[in-house]
Design a protein that fits this description.
The complex is a heterodimer of chains A (663) and B (120). With 663 residues, chain A is α+β, with helices and mostly antiparallel strands. In chain A, 50% of the residues lie in helices and 21% in strands. In chain A, strand 8 and strand 9 form a beta hairpin. In chain A, helix 11 packs antiparallel against helix 12. In chain B, 47% of the residues lie in helices and 21% in strands. Chain B is built from five helices and five strands. In chain B, helix 4 links the parallel strand 4 and strand 5. In chain B, 41% of the residues are buried. At the A-B interface, helix 11 and helix 12 of A face helix 1 of B. The structure holds adenosine-5'-triphosphate (ATP) and magnesium ion (MG). Adenosine-5'-triphosphate binds next to helix 14 and helix 15 of chain A.
Chain lengths: 663, 120
């Protein structure tokens, strides 16, 4: 089981698939990280600029609100009826006017004061005489001193709130939320109010006779923040929460907001985070970043609200829910992850398919090689592949064919070697037995023939006949001698010797004969041959016979080349003796009979047919072998392989190996 | 000059006898090693021609015996097939010369004279 798994892991298919997977995973993760973050950060920057713009719009709306109050008051103050009423103390008219314009612009408080700081009317309140400095509206104070319309934000303390309308005091009292009470200097804010409004001096004949003022308490006011929510964010809701939120802070406390707390109520009385407070309220800078608003994160923008004395009295805030953008990122990541997953699945399938295609011929070859090792030399290697695997298949096919060929040849050879050695053995025994018995009668024949021939009184005819007997007996003697040579199984008498030297001697011995015949006999010994341990006489008889055979097969003008060459065969060091002639060549049919005893094509009396048979025996006993190649009409080449002296190892003997190869 | 011929095949003995007689050499013969030893006990020869392959005891035994008891006598070894092996064994036993069967009269005489005359 474990092995199987290991095999799978090390298989080409697995590796290919794994690398494909790794690549797709890498690309996927990279694009996931880079893409996700890029998308998110671009959305974030985009959103930040948008939120800043939204803040500008909110601020504009805020200023517009103030302007609207101022304009209405200016219009009222400019009418001659109003001026006359103020100059003549027509309270009724003035009160009507206050009701009128307060209703038009939605003022929480309003009033008219003459140049002696005497009240001439208040919204929904009794007219009181002298207005004390403590409750005097700061706008009015400035309007009198600067003799112009003053509009803007201002802080109202408990006293002035109560003075304007006791209900306002109640409205301004916003329960301090239990959370975030960290800012120490904010305690006083509880009973204070933030208001916007305007004061316009009333002039009659170039002289300021009084001022009309009015304003809106922002504490608990919903109209402004809802207007921002409506115009800027179109009241978009995401997961039950407002996407766009806006808040007005008095100092750091929310006094007007559409941020909802957990209970779905407006989160009044809660505080801004300390970082925001520090940067915006303390340092007077803009804030555009993520900010925690209650429990949620918003991409938010804050700016300070300045009162008419240019002090920072609060903050204006707008923000969009970050969740919406986080979810965008989440979605993007999920999308990327899905794409990556799809890529992985795809590459797995692709890898499986592609490796299947690639591995199919390889598997075919694999199975084929298994078949070959089991002895089947014509295995099925599958359909030819079109890619370079096809080349491999082709080569494999060639290899199997070569193997088949070799197998066939080896089989034939080993068969013939068997037959050959059987032949040798039986012929040897026979020859040894017979030869010995023949020699004795032959001795008598030779002796008596010669003794008779010594006589001087023989008729010429008789002498001729006797001489024939003598010469034919000589022939018999030679045959018997060859037979005995062939069957001889005596020990070798090996001596260390220089192969080239021995060959040179033999060639020289035969050079006269070749000269007479007109055949060019040459010897070319390779340098660097190792030393050999050979039976000098026997070996010489081997190559002398071969050169003689070559001489017999050649015509005048032909060539016989004897050469040596160093060879490493079967990891044994040795040399080859090559005897090559340009003679008649050997017919392919008789090629495998050459080494048979008594096989000859020569005329009766010229050859016994034992030369090569004996030679093969001798070379065999030196643990060498003989090969023949021949082409009819072109020539023959005998190659004798002999092992060099071995320093180590046993001297086992091998069955005779004649390696025949027709051309 | 007197020569002892030892061979189990009478035709060989006869051949040798005829060749030597023609040269005027006296011959004596034996068919086995035992016989030869018996003859050698009583007579003295200048040389002995002996076959190797004989029934019962072979020629090498005879040659060794001769070298011990008749060291002055020359020995010509005669064999059907002269291999280096037999040659070596013969030399070790004490043979002076070798000849392979079959041979011509001249060949036999040449061997005999070459190796034996020096001993006279
Ligand atoms: N170089 C050669 N060219 C052509 N034929 C050859 C050559 N060598 C050998 N043969 C053939 O092989 C046969 C066998 O050769 P081998 O040496 O065994 O016997 P032989 O030469 O006929 O007789 P012997 O060598 O016993 O006198 C020869 O008769 C000849 O037909
Ligand atoms: Mg030959």
């Amino acid at each position: 089981m474990k092995l199987k798994l290991l095999n799978l892991i090390y298989s080409t298919r697995f590796r290919l698939i794994a690398s494909l997977l790794v690549v797709s995973l890498l690309i996927g993760t990279l694009s996931l990280i880079v893409g996700g973050n890029m998308l998110y950060s671009s959305v974030l920057t985009e959103t930040r600029t948008r939120v800043r713009e939204d803040l500008n719009v909110a601020k504009l709306l805020y200023d517009e609100r103030i302007d609207a109050i101022r304009m209405v008051l200016e219009i009222i103050a400019d009418t001659s009826e109003f001026k006359q009423a103020l100059a003549s103390g027509n309270y009724l008219y003035l009160d009507k006017q206050i009701q009128n314009f307060s209703g038009r612009v939605g003022l929480n408080f309003a009033g008219i004061i003459n140049d002696n700081n005497e009240s001439y009317g208040r919204l929904n309140q009794q007219v009181v005489g002298q207005v004390t400095q403590a409750v005097m509206n700061p706008l009015v104070v400035r309007a009198f001193t600067e003799v112009r319309s003053i509009a803007g934000t201002f802080v109202m303390d408990e006293q002035s709130l109560r003075y304007e309308n006791p209900e306002l005091l109640i409205k301004a009292q916003i329960a301090t939320s239990e959370n975030l009470p960290a800012q120490k200097d904010l305690k006083s804010a509880v009973a204070q109010g933030l208001a916007v409004g305007a004061a316009v001096p009333v002039r009659l004949d170039g002289k300021v006779i009084g001022a009309v003022y009015g304003g809106v308490l922002l504490n608990g006011d919903t109209s402004f923040v809802d207007q921002v929510g409506e115009t800027v964010f179109r009241n978009e809701v995401y997961k039950g929460r407002n996407v766009g939120t806006s808040t007005i802070f008095l100092n750091a406390q929310r006094i007007s907001t559409n941020v909802m707390n957990r209970n779905g109520e407006r989160a009044l009385g809660t505080y801004a985070s300390s970082e925001v407070t520090r940067q915006v309220l303390d340092e007077g800078k803009l804030w555009t970043d993520r900010a925690q608003v209650l429990s949620d994160w918003y991409i938010s923008a804050y700016e300070p609200i300045m009162d008419i004395f240019d002090t920072r009295v609060g903050m204006l805030y707008v923000g969009t829910l970050e969740d919406k953008y986080l979810d965008v990122r989440k979605q993007a990541i999920v999308l990327f992850a899905l794409i990556t997953l799809a890529g992985i699945v795809f590459s797995f399938v692709l890898g499986w398919y592609v490796t299947g295609i690639i591995m199919k011929p390889v598997n075919g070859l694999l199975q084929a090689s298994v078949a070959i090792s089991n002895g089947n030399f014509s295995p099925d290697i599958g359909p030819p592949s079109k890619c370079d695997m096809g080349l491999l298949q082709e080569q494999f096919k060639i290899m199997t064919e070569a193997l088949q060929e070799r197998e066939k040849r080896q089989k034939e050879e080993s068969e013939s070697v068997l037959i050959q050695s059987e032949k040798h053995a039986s012929v040897g025994k026979l020859a040894a037995g017979v030869a010995h018995e023949i020699n004795n009668p032959l001795t008598a024949v030779l002796t008596f023939t010669h003794l008779i021939l010594r006589r001087q009184d023989l008729a010429a005819e008789v002498r001729d006949d006797l001489e024939t007997i003598a010469s034919q007996t000589e022939r018999v003697r030679k045959i018997v001698k060859s037979l005995l040579d062939f069957s001889r199984q005596s020990r070798l008498d090996p001596q260390p010797m220089d192969l080239n030297l021995e060959l040179a001697k033999s060639v020289k011995l035969l050079s006269n004969q070749s000269l007479i015949k007109g055949v060019e006999l040459s010897f070319n010994g390779a340098t660097g041959l190792p030393m050999f341990s050979l039976d000098r006489n026997l070996c010489q008889s081997v190559w002398i016979n071969m050169i003689m055979n070559a001489l017999d097969a050649t015509q005048p003008g032909d060539k016989i080349e004897v050469s040596t060459q160093q060879v490493i065969s079967d990891d044994k060091n040795g040399a080859e003796i090559i005897i090559r002639d340009t003679g008649s060549g050997i017919e392919p049919e008789i090629l495998d009979k050459l080494f048979d005893p008594f096989f000859t094509t020569k005329d009766v009396g010229k050859g016994t047919g034992l030369g090569l048979a004996v030679s093969a025996g001798i070379i065999e006993r030196h643990e060498g072998n003989i090969r023949v190649t021949s082409t009819l009409e072109e020539g023959t080449c005998f190659t004798i392989w002999l092992p060099a002296i071995r320093l180590l190892g046993d001297h086992c003997s091998y069955p005779t190996k004649y390696l025949r190869r027709g051309a | 000059m007197k020569v002892l011929i030892v061979d189990d095949d009478t035709i060989v003995v006869e051949s040798c006898r005829r060749i030597l007689h023609a040269e005027g050499i006296v011959t004596q013969h034996a068919g086995t090693v035992e016989e030869a030893k018996a003859v050698l006990e009583t007579e003295v020869f200048s040389a002995m021609i002996t076959d190797i392959k004989m029934p019962k005891q072979d020629g090498f035994k005879l040659i060794s015996w001769v070298k011990k008891h008749r060291p002055e006598m020359s020995v010509l070894m005669m064999t059907g097939y002269l291999t280096p092996d037999t040659q070596n064994t013969g030399l070790n036993s004490g043979a002076d010369a070798f000849i392979a069967k079959p041979f011509t009269p001249d060949e036999l005489l040449e061997q005999l004279y070459n190796h034996i005359t020096c001993k006279f």
